[in-house]
Design brief:
573 residues; 70% helix; globular; 22 helices
């Protein structure tokens, strides 16, 4: 994450580099702010391509080689970013930044489902720790890039070189990571398990993968957990109802097995599954609004602060801006995770902590029970909307502030509240589809967030800023092209910030739509359950008419979801 923020942290030096590089196109030389946005967009394009492939192949291969390959490509991309200065080449920097998106893509589709399945009651908190890496890494990279770029000894190229040197031992350590749960496959077509003496062969998508006896002892625990008897939706009241329940359960099991076998996890089917989820689509649009603004502020934050004359020195401005963002991410993201944990606990998700991270259904690696997905979404999203609304109440006043301390404080509170939404949004995205498609849902929301948010918005805002405050363009020497005019064009800079802030309001609209779609799905599920109960009652009455003993009463209960008192009150009303 930190490498992504080196460019925003040293924006003046990179703007000067873009204007003087041997192969910079004319549009970049004439509009350096737009060129800075193009570099950030290049990263997102590489990320998008990689996450499509990662979301698909996570069903087919083990997650470890997928992530390890991404890390290796990232390392080479960081090395190339440093070499761009040596070659004085815009395109070397452009394609190197594109390559660095591969690693984040692999982590994005692998880590959240792993945490959700194995973290038990604290899944929300541990997911927030993972997501905290984004604001923390960006903030550290922002400060690091600023200090390295302005150093007389090093320069921004060595900001990348030192990162390569420091991360190489992590690559070596990761090579020795072992995971044998579910054959090392996160999600997908694990179709058979063959036992051959002391060796187990797991057949994954038609290919055999042998595991030694030591790994099998670890695997046996997860296989034993996976065969745990599930509590039936309806309790057997007598012999007749027991037979009916068994028949119904067997019927649904056969249908599910058939459906699983038909699902081949093609890229087309994965995209279709995501597009068919109205909840996921609307969540993605709301997330895109937040992504775009946060990235745009990260890209141009230092330039905005200098143009508004809140600070006189770029290094000081970048340092305080980075500290503000880092503290907001470190505080806000775990707070959001704790809020999500309270909601998940209310619905009994993650109760089986003794199963080593088993889901609420009792099966390790199977996520949250299907009957709970939409009720949890409907409970999380109103709280996320409240956080976004409260954040904007603190962010909008910064448009009129002339003091750096007040500006950064209100921005800190607003960002803290925005970062608190990220865990809930990720959980809702995974719950919006079936468990096997959680990596695809994460890939979809990330792609939509980047293509509709932080790829176009930094470029657009860069062009708007250059138009509304032309004197604040950065020249080849790293300073504003017309400092006197820039000082009088503060209104244009604030107008650009206002456009960015208003854009976040789209998140309120789309999150509310997602909540309503989840309520619709809850209503459909309840109607289906009532219809099945009525059919069972008719079958029971028919058996009584034929002289068979029937002493059962018509009862309805749901073993997994119980309405809250507030929901019960609304139903009575």
């Amino acid at each position: 994450m930190a490498d992504r923020a080196i460019i925003p942290g040293a924006s003046q030096e990179f703007l000067a580099f873009l204007g003087g590089a041997l192969d910079s196109p004319a549009v970049v030389k004439n509009n350096p702010d737009a060129g800075l946005g193009i570099l950030q967009a290049a990263f997102m394009i590489g990320y998008t391509l990689a996450i499509i492939l990662s979301g698909h192949y996570v069903h087919k291969i083990k997650w470890k080689p997928l992530v390890f390959f991404g890390l290796c490509v990232w390392w080479l991309g960081v090395l190339g970013s440093g070499n761009a200065k040596q070659y004085n080449s815009f395109y070397v920097l452009l394609f190197s930044r594109m390559a660095t998106g591969c690693s984040e893509a692999a982590f994005q589709v692998v880590a959240p489902p792993l945490i959700q399945d194995r973290a038990g009651k604290r899944a929300g908190f541990w997911l927030s720790i993972f997501l905290m890496g984004l604001p923390l890494g960006l903030s550290v990279g922002y400060i690091y890039g600023s200090h390295m770029a302005t150093s007389e000894l090093w320069g921004w190229d060595w900001a990348y070189y030192w990162m390569c040197i420091g991360s190489f031992p992590l690559l070596v350590v990761f090579a020795f990571v072992r995971d044998v749960t579910n054959g090392g496959v996160l999600s997908g077509e694990v179709v058979d398990v063959e036992l051959e003496g002391s060796v187990t062969a797991v057949v994954i998508d038609g290919e055999r993968d042998e595991v030694d006896e030591e790994d099998e002892r670890e695997r046996s625990t997860s296989l034993t957990t996976a065969t745990t008897t599930l509590e039936p939706l309806l309790p057997p009241l007598d012999n007749n109802s027991n037979s009916a329940a068994n028949a119904t359960s067997k019927h649904h099991h056969n249908n599910s097995s058939a459906a699983d076998k038909k699902d081949k996890f093609t890229i087309l089917s994965e995209v279709k599954t995501c597009l068919n989820s109205k909840i996921l689509v609307t969540l993605s649009l709301g997330q895109a609004a937040i992504f775009g603004v946060v990235t745009a502020l990260g890209t141009f934050g230092g330039a905005f602060i200098l143009a508004l004359q809140l600070f006189d020195d770029e290094k000081v401005a970048a340092t305080w801006f980075g500290i503000t963002a880092a503290l907001a991410g470190v505080i806000g993201t775990p707070l959001g995770g704790s809020l999500v944990d309270k909601i998940l606990t209310r619905y009994g998700a993650g109760d089986n902590d003794n199963d080593g991270g088993a889901s609420s259904s009792g099966v390790r690696g199977e996520g949250i029970d299907d009957s709970l997905r939409h009720p949890i979404i409907a409970s999380i999203l109103p709280r996320m909307n409240a956080l976004v609304a409260a954040a904007m109440l603190f962010i909008f006043p910064t448009l009129a502030m002339q003091d750096a301390a007040f500006f950064l404080f209100f921005l800190f509170v607003g960002w803290t509240l925005l970062f608190a939404t990220q865990t809930g949004i990720s959980i809702c995205a995974m719950l919006s589809v079936k468990n096997a498609h959680r990596p695809n849902a994460l890939a979809f929301i990330s792609i939509a967030g980047h293509l509709l948010g932080d790829v176009p918005l930094p470029i657009i805002l860069g062009l708007i800023k250059d138009h509304l405050a032309p004197g604040c363009k950065v020249g080849e020497d790293g300073s504003f092209s017309k400092p006197e005019e820039c000082a009088s064009q503060g209104k244009g800079v604030r107008a650009t910030l206002a456009i960015a802030y208003v854009w976040v309001l789209w998140a309120l609209v789309f999150f509310e739509l997602a909540r309503r779609f989840s309520r619709i799905e809850i209503g459909k599920r309840r109607r289906d359950e009532i219809n099945s109960l009525l059919l069972q009652d008719e079958d029971s009455n028919g058996a009584s008419a034929n002289g068979e003993k029937n002493n059962s009463s018509f009862r309805y209960y749901h073993s997994k979801f119980q309405p809250t008192p507030q929901q019960s009150g609304r139903s009575l009303a």
